[in-house]
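Q: Hi! Curious about what ABC transporter ATP-binding protein looks like structurally. Here's the sequence.
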Amino acid sequence: MASTGFAVIADGLVKRYGDRRVVDGVDLAVPAGAIYGVLGPNGAGKTTTLRMMLGIIEPDAGARILLDTAHPRDAGDRVGYLPEERGLYPSMTAREAVAFMAALRGLDWQTGRARAADLLEAAGLGHAIDAKIRKLSKGMAQLVQLLGAVVHRPELLVLDEPFSGLDPVNQERLEALILAERDRGATILFSTHVMQHAQRLCDRLAIIAGGRRRFEGTVDEARALLPQQVHYVPVRADDTLPDMLPAGARRHGEEWRFVLPTDGVEGLLKRLIDAGYGIAGLSIERPGLHDAFVRIVGRDAVAPGPDTTA
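A: Let's find out. The predicted structure is below.
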C-alpha cells in the first residue's frame, strides 16, 4: 500500500471478538495535514478501528500504514493519543501532568514544564497551572490530558470521543486547540458520534456502523446525498393550501417544509402568489450532517447497547 500524501491508511481491517466481527473490512485513508473524523453510533467499531491503526491491538485481517510504516508502534513518538478512557494522576499539578506525558515521549523535564505552562496559558487554563488534578473539573482535567497528547508536537494526533462530557465552553476550547494543531501542520484523526463537531471541523470523514464503513468523503458530499429542503411561510393559509404544495409537504407551526422540486421552486411560488397565499418567508437549505448520517446509517443509527469495544 503506497502512503504518499496520507498520514494513515487502513486496508480491509477486521477484528473479531468471539463470533462477532466488531470491525468488518474497514478501509480508510487520512490525508496528511487534514482533520479527519470517524463518525458512528456507540458500538459501531470506532474505538477498535483507531486502536488497530495505532498498533494498540492487532487486526485479525487487513493491513495499516501509520506515518509511512507498517509497524505503527515504531512511530509512537510521532503520535499524540487521547484515549476514550481518561486518566491522570490526581496528586499531580496540571503542569506536572503535561510535563510527565512529555517525558514519556522523550522530552527532558525542563522543556516539558516550559511547554506545559505555555499550552495551559494558551488553552485558557493559566489559572490552574499549579492546581492538583483532583481539584479540577472533569472538563478541565480532560483538556489537561489533551495538552499532554500534543506537548511533544506530534505529526499525528488521534482523539477518541474527545468532546464527550465537555461543557460548551470547554468544547469551544477543544475545537480551537484542534484547529491550532492542524494549522501547526499536524494531521488530526478523531472519532465522535456528535455531528455538529464533525460538521464544523472535518476536511473529510468516514461513517462507520455495524463495523463497516458506510461513507467516506467531505461533509458537503455527505449532505449532498439528501435533497434540498424548502421552508415556506405563507402570508395566509387555508385548508386548500396543502393541495398547492408538493407531495410530502409537512407543516411546522406557520411554516411548511418540502423537498425542492426537480424543476425548481419558481413556478410553484408564482402559483402560490397567484392563488393569494403570498410569501411571508422562504429559504432553501441543504440538510445537515445529522440528517445525512441517519440516512446513511439507517437502522444501525441506534446502537444495541453499551459496548466496551466501540
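A: A fun detail: The radius of gyration is 24 Å.
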